């Protein structure tokens, strides 16, 4: 219902009681005035008495009604004049008529103005009532626990203290031990909504004082906030409900601008016990996770170290066995012994480089970039893996699609990635028992900023359900696998601005592509 329709409704209700009485009285008065004016010899401005009719009618009539009644009175006055003085109209009676009409007009105007003022007051009152009702309904129905507290006495007390030149409430409270309790006693609860009663129980909802529920320190903060004229005070406080349950709540007090409104300050409390417990559990879980991931990183590094070292150590064993065989010959083949010994030295150096590299990874010092020729890197890596390739019966083709410029990189890192990819290819073809075992390593320079090394095998390719998890740490389909190889390779390349992708080749088998920047950005390097 709109405000204006409410106004008229209330007017109608009033009319139901006073309307008929005042209406009849006004009609009787008008008739009497007309009668005296027309049929008696009473001299004087009788028609002026129509003003009284208007005053009586104003008690019941609306604005339109007033105008109609005023017009009717004017008609009666003119009609009466015409009947009695129509033909012999003298100046005096004409002036009397004019005065009566003027009085009628002025009275009507004043009454209309009063009526307008009355209507607007009524509408303001209704708006106020409506706003109060709205506030009440929000206060009562909201699910946030709300209190109305009277802080007016406390505010006056604090302002009085401030007027004495005391600005720091803490020092004052220390010097006056009774001050805090006195202040607490000045606050009273005016009302508490349903949510407040549900949260604390009816007794605590009305009985609780902030001094009892918040620490002395926070209470002093609250007093200081009032002295400083702050608008909001917020804090986490612990309170005890009727049933003895301790709750952690977010307390919020908003102080009004108008000092007179301090008798109804709204205080809200939101129960954050569950949320805090959840946050605590989350923090604990995060701490545990951090511990676990630290352990996993150490585990992963050792796994990666073991994985990387396996290859050179295996090669050293094989070469030492070969070397012994050459020595056992009669006469010993010293040239072959030398070749085996040289291979053993080369593999030992690689093992030592791997250990050195892992150590620098752990100490977070980054390795130095050097210009690496990818073609040479591929050749050297294949030579290093000679034994493994032979053992598995794998043939390697090197395809130099386009000349590739040297790229700034850490050679051992690229080599580790390449060894991982070739080892994975060998294992995939081994596991599938592939009859034809071919690995093709392609180097090319697709654009000015990038170079690429692709390792393609003739194995079974990457299974559909593996594709998504391929680079996830600890994902493996091998009985003895760690699942760290591809994840470490990818992060190694990404740390330098490069990337690693894996997919299936349309002609069969899997293809892994290392993309490197020809000019690694400074931040990556
Ligand atoms: P791991 O070798 O210890 O399993 P990786 O991260 O190197 O760990 O590899 C993860 C998984 O990716 C492998 O278990 C395998 O299922 C799949 N994969 C890797 N390389 C190939 C490949 N060339 N062909 C088919 N699947 C592969």
SSE layout and pairing:
Blueprint lengths: L2 H37 L10 H8 L5 H23 L5 H51 L3 E6 L1 H12 L5 H7 L3 H7 L2 E5 L1 H7 L1 H6 L2 H4 L2 H12 L4 E9 L5 E9 L10 E7 L1 H56 L5 H29 L7 E3 L1 H11 L1 H7 L2 E6 L6 E3 L1 H22 L5 E10 L2 E8 L6 H4 L17 H10 L4 E6 L5 E8 L8
Parallel strand pairs: 7-9
Antiparallel strand pairs: 1-2, 1-5, 3-4, 4-5, 6-8, 9-10, 10-12, 11-12
The structure holds adenosine-5'-diphosphate.
Pfam families: HATPase_c, HisKA
Organism: Ferirhizobium litorale
Protein name: histidine kinase
Q: Which small molecules are bound?
A: adenosine-5'-diphosphate
Q: Which CATH class of the largest domain is shown?
A: Alpha Beta
Principal-axis shape equals: elongated
CATH topology of the largest domain: Heat Shock Protein 90
Question: What tags apply to this protein structure?
Answer:
PAS, alpha+beta, Helix Hairpins, histidine kinase, transmembrane, Beta-Lactamase, 5-stranded antiparallel beta sheet, elongated, binds adenosine-5'-diphosphate
Protein described:
Helices cover 60% and strands 15% of the residues. Helix 1 (3-39) packs parallel to helix 3 (63-85), helix 3 (63-85) packs antiparallel against helix 4 (91-141) and helix 12 (273-328) packs antiparallel against helix 13. The chain is of the alpha+beta class and 525 residues long. The chain has 4 domains: 3-139, no CATH class; 143-271, PAS domain (Beta-Lactamase, 2-Layer Sandwich), CATH 3.30.450; 274-365, Helix Hairpins; 367-525, Histidine kinase-like ATPase, C-terminal domain (Heat Shock Protein 90). The strands form 3 sheets. A 5-stranded antiparallel sheet has the order 2-1-5-4-3. Strands 7-9-10-12-11 form a 5-stranded mixed sheet, with helices on one face. The chain has 18 helices and 12 strands. It binds adenosine-5'-diphosphate (ADP). Residues 424-425, 428, 457, 459, 462, 466, 470, 475-478, 481-487, 510 line the site of adenosine-5'-diphosphate. The site of adenosine-5'-diphosphate has 20 residues, from helix 16 and helix 18.
């Amino acid at each position: 219902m709109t405000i204006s329709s409410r106004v008229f409704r209330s007017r109608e209700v009033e009319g139901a009681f006073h309307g008929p009485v005042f209406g009849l009285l006004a009609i009787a008065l008008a008739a009497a005035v007309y009668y005296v004016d027309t049929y008696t010899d009473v001299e004087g401005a009788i028609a002026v008495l129509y003003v009284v009719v208007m005053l009586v009618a104003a008690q019941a009539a609306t604005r339109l009604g007033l105008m109609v009644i005023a017009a009717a009175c004017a008609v009666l006055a003119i009609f009466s004049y015409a009947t009695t003085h129509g033909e012999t109209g003298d100046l005096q009676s004409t002036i009397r008529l004019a005065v009566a009409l003027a009085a009628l007009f002025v009275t009507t105007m004043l009454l209309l103005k009063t009526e307008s003022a009355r209507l607007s007051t009524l509408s303001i009152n209704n708006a106020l009532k409506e706003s109060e009702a709205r506030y009440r309904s929000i206060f009562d129905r909201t699910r946030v626990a709300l209190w109305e507290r009277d802080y007016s006495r406390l505010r006056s007390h604090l302002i009085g203290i401030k007027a004495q030149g005391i600005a720091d409430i803490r020092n004052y409270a220390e010097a006056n031990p009774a001050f805090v309790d006195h202040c607490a006693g000045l606050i009273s609860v005016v009302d508490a909504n349903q949510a407040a009663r549900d949260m604390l129980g009816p007794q605590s909802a009305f009985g609780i004082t902030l001094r009892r529920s918040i620490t002395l320190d926070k209470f002093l903060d609250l007093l200081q906030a009032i002295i400083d004229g702050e608008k909001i005070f917020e804090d986490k406080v612990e309170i005890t409900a009727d049933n003895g349950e301790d709750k952690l709540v977010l307390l919020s007090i908003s102080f009004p601008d108008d000092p007179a409104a301090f008798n109804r300050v709204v205080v809200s409390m939101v129960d954050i016990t569950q949320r805090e417990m959840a946050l605590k559990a989350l923090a604990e879980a995060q701490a545990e996770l951090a511990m676990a991931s630290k352990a996993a990183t150490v585990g992963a590094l050792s796994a990666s170290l073991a994985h990387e070292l396996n290859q050179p150590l295996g090669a050293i064993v094989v070469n030492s066995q070969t070397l012994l065989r050459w020595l056992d010959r009669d006469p010993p083949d010293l040239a072959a012994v030398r070749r085996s010994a040289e291979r053993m030295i080369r593999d030992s150096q690689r093992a030592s480089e791997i250990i050195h590299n892992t150590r620098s990874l752990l100490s977070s010092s980054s390795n130095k970039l050097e210009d690496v020729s990818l073609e040479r890197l591929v050749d050297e890596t294949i030579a290093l893996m000679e034994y493994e390739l032979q053992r598995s019966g794998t043939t390697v083709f090197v395809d130099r699609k386009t000349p590739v410029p040297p790229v700034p990189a850490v050679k051992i890192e690229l080599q580790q990635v390449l060894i991982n990819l070739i080892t994975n290819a060998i294992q995939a073809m081994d596991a599938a028992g592939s009859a034809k075992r071919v690995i093709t390593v392609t180097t090319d320079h697709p654009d000015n900023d990038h170079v690429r090394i692709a390792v393609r095998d003739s194995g079974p390719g990457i299974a559909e359900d593996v594709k998504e998890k391929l680079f996830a740490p600890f994902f493996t389909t091998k009985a003895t696998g760690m699942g760290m190889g591809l994840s470490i390779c990818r992060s190694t390349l990404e740390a330098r601005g490069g990337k690693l992708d894996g997919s299936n080749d349309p002609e069969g088998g899997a293809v892994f592509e290392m993309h490197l920047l020809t000019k690694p950005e400074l931040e990556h390097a």
